[in-house]
Amino acid sequence: MFFSDIHTRIRFFFLLILCISIIIVIRVFYIQVIEYDKLSTLAESLWSRKLPIGADRGEIYDRNGNVLATNLTTTSLVLIPNQIENKEEVARSLSEILGTDYEDMLGHVSKKTSIERVHPEGRQLSYDIASQIEELKYDGVYLVKESKRYYPYGNTLSHVLGYVGIDNQGLSGLELTYDEYLTGVDGAIMYFSDGKGNRLELSEVYEEPQNGMNLQLTIDLDLQLAAERELDNVMAKYTPEHALIMAMNPKTGEILAMASRPNFDPNNYKEYDTETINRNLPIWMTYEPGSTFKIVTLASSIEEGTVNLFEDTYYDSGSIHVEGATIHCWKSGGHGAQTYLNVVENSCNPGFVTLGQKLGKTTLMNYIINFGFGEKTGIDLNGESTGILFSLEQMGPVELATTSFGQGISVTPIQQVRAVSAAVNGGYLYEPFLVKEILEPETNTVIYQKEINYSSQVISEESSKLVRFALESVVANGSGRNAYIENYRVGGKTGTAQKVQDGHYMDGNYILSFIGFMPADDPEIVVYVAIDHPIGVVQYGGTVAAPIARAILEAAIPVLGIESSTEGLAKEYNWMDTKYHQIPDMTGKSVEEAKDALKGFSIEYSGEGNTVMYQTPEPNSYVKEGGVVKLLLG
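^ thats the sequence. predicted structure below, dont judge the formating
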């Protein structure tokens, strides 16, 4: 019995020891294997310190690789308080160099923390200040690399690019929309210290920063600079309240240029008020579009077959009466008898009222919605507005009439550009966009490419072709004459929209606009210009906005490689216009025949002989009256 009890106790004790050993082994395994990384990190944090190295933000390029946003390398002040012995002396020296309060700096120097970043006065220091701090040679005072955003073209494209704060965080524009891609991962220099924070003589560990992704935009810098230049001229000449220019590829939705005034320099964004830096007018501003909106009514009428532009007629007496309201034509006394093509050319409000009446409010409103009005376009920028439309319940006969010519509703410029692009590109409603590709920073390998998709086909190809013809006729023979470019096919529409304040239309205060495209038979670019209340000029879109659009379209010719054409509609000149004439083919003709045929032009000869072998400009080109025609004789 006694021995039996001893053996039982021994077995029990042995099992107890075995269980404890197993538990210890399991615990050691858990600590050494499972929890190793966590405990190693905790241990390392007790005796290691990291001096941060800022990563570069991703660069932004235009469609041709021109750098629009890049980075400058600066330095920032970082303190290790435990390593600073004479804190009062260090605080006084640093505050004098930085021009800051001594007590504030003493607070930084004395703070109970492993690492203290001096913010904001110690951030992004100039070379001179950094050199003065470096010369102090104080323990615990470090200068580390930091990246500062830099925009080499200053104010150019400012609202589109946006700006970044002192912590390199995007605060507006593409910098905000694509912040997660542009922001890199900071690196560090890790060193080791004892329990009191004193630096140990051990090897440093360098953690390389990872730069952010690069963006390639749809913007063409040459076209953008042309738009900026035209806006600068407008502001100097007419001092308007606002002004904007947009250009888009109607076949893809790619934004080629986007500029507005007032603008700002994102390198110095703190010098501007928040309204200036945060309001990107082409996507934010809402207003009554005026006559440029007639393109929607025109396209809808053609698609529905409610009008024949060439055979149906309308007599314009100068006004039309709708439910007790009188709607006037801009021309006193009206245009008299017209075809509906003339109605479009003359931008005749009463004529467009009848087009709206033929469609009816339900059909017209459906087309307006299908053309993308009343909703955001989805462009990759923050701050886009939706505009305001009548509901069908609110839309009586008068509202139907005014909507037909662009009054009483509210739209944004980007909505207008998108809708008109659909009207002239075959009917396809594309989503506008600015970022074409996202690129890996080291090799610029494409990691994302924007897919070009259209949401719907609003009108047919055949209807779109007729819209293009009508709008080319507007530029050749109607209100858009000032946008005409000899030897190129241009279509477009003017707009003169009266502004509303406190529910009433303002006297003599208009937004003058023009929307145009080129070539008229196969558009590669749509341009929109809007000038808000220009001073000292006749208040018509054709007078102010159309010439600006012409300048942008002319700038686009070499940029997009648009070829000249002699197949477009000839312009009907009036007495104020500079006249152009088509020159005949002189190849194979004699010198005497050339002189007779080219009367009114200045002829320059080269070569010898009596027969014309070659001529420039080419046959059938339009040349300014009195212009030079060069003939090669042989």
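The longest helix spans residues 2-34.
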